[in-house]
Design brief:
The chain is of the alpha+beta class. It is built from 8 helices and 21 strands. Strand 13 and strand 14 (198-199) form a beta hairpin.
Length: 364
């Protein structure tokens, strides 16, 4: 059990501006491993650990042909144990395997299964087939054996087929890990599909073998106008907006204690909300009087399932009326976050409320 508890700390949720995925840290190499398709178009991503702590990670190497990427965490990870990657490992039908991952952006999950076929020709590659659950979000969650050794790495499943998932060979990963000391960790390196040279500058051709290179691999995807506006507003709170990214047009972060959620509803409305506190079990009248009569406009209070929420809603079209309106709304977003941080403490001190499970003090 201790081994499992240590290993699960090395599995990370990877949040981008488009989706949320999975990856795993290797202590020996000091990198997080994930799919290339997970980080395509990103130079930085958010890493979220088992305890919901977040940090930025830089994309330092991608191998599009093998669908491999290495991420360098901003802060060194002091983990007691991580998954073992060995030179060669025998895989047989009916071998028991486990998958560790964050499915659909949810909490850490473990599923079990067996090897259905140790070698399946899929999309021109030899992949392993397993009946262990593989779903969107667990790309590059590790597939491990009972000795906590990496067998292969999850990559995909057939969309309309249950219990039919595929993974790429750990030997392909090991080939890239052996070259990790040659990577310039200050910039993005792209592995040439022809000669395995590390290319660090945008180019049409590999400088070593002159193989054709897709220079778009080096480009970082631009955010949509609304997303850029919101990330600029988040940055005024001294928060790296990359850390705040949850998935497409959603942001989630803590500002001291409260959790702040920002999302688009029905393609027309921008919502910013925070679940502040749990209602007390007695003496509710003073609290309700405050919630009903305190003027917090343009923000609102509401109560749902025994919790107090604080929110700000506006039409997206109202944001971009003119430059002055954009500045005013950006300031209101900043003030919303600051006020949420004041309110949850005030409700505890004055009205005997408790923090919710989403507040930083209680988040596990």
């Amino acid at each position: 059990m201790e081994k499992f508890d240590n290993i699960k700390q090395s599995i990370f949720k990877i949040n981008t501006s488009e989706w949320t995925w999975s990856g795993f840290y290797l202590k020996e190499y000091k990198v997080v491993v994930t799919n290339y398709h997970v980080v395509a178009g990103s130079h930085e991503v958010s890493l979220e650990d088992y305890d919901s702590n977040k940090q930025v990670a830089k994309v330092i190497m991608v191998h599009p042909e093998k669908d491999i990427a290495f991420l360098l965490p901003e802060n060194e990870l002091n983990l007691d144990d991580t998954i073992e990657v060995v030179e060669s490992i025998e895989v047989k039908e009916k071998d028991k395997v486990s998958v560790m991952w964050y499915p659909f952006g949810m909490w850490f999950t473990v599923t079990e299964g067996i090897i259905s076929s140790p070698k399946q020709k899929v999309w021109g590659r030899d992949l392993i087939q397993t009946d262990a659950a593989i779903n969107p979000g667990n790309s590059w969650g590790p597939l491990i054996n009972e000795n906590w050794q990496l067998i292969w790495i999850n990559t995909s499943k057939y969309t309309n087929a249950d219990n039919t998932g595929f993974a790429v060979s750990s030997s392909e990963l090991l080939e890239e890990l052996k070259k990790i000391d040659k990577i310039d960790k200050t910039k993005l390196s792209v592995v040439c599909h022809s000669c395995d040279t590390f290319i660090t500058e945008k180019t049409d051709y590999c400088p070593s073998c002159w193989a054709k290179v897709d220079k778009n691999i080096f480009l970082e995807k631009k955010l949509e106008k609304l997303s850029q506006f919101l990330e600029d507003a988040i940055a005024t709170l001294w928060i790296n907006p990359v850390i705040a990214r949850a998935w497409n047009e959603r942001w989630l972060f803590h500002y001291w204690s409260p959790e702040i959620r920002i999302f688009i509803y029905d393609n027309n409305y921008l919502y910013i909300t925070s679940q502040l506190n749990v209602l007390p079990t007695k003496d509710l009248l003073p609290l309700y009087e405050y919630i009903l009569w305190e003027d917090v406009s343009p923000y609102q209070f509401w109560v749902h399932e025994n919790c107090i929420y604080f929110s700000y809603r506006l039409a997206i079209t109202d944001i971009f009326t003119n430059d002055e309106t954009e500045k005013e709304i950006a300031e209101k977003i900043k003030n919303f976050v600051l006020k949420a941080d004041d309110l949850d403490d005030m409700f505890v001190d004055k009205y005997w409320c408790k923090m919710t499970t989403y507040s930083k003090e209680n988040r596990k």
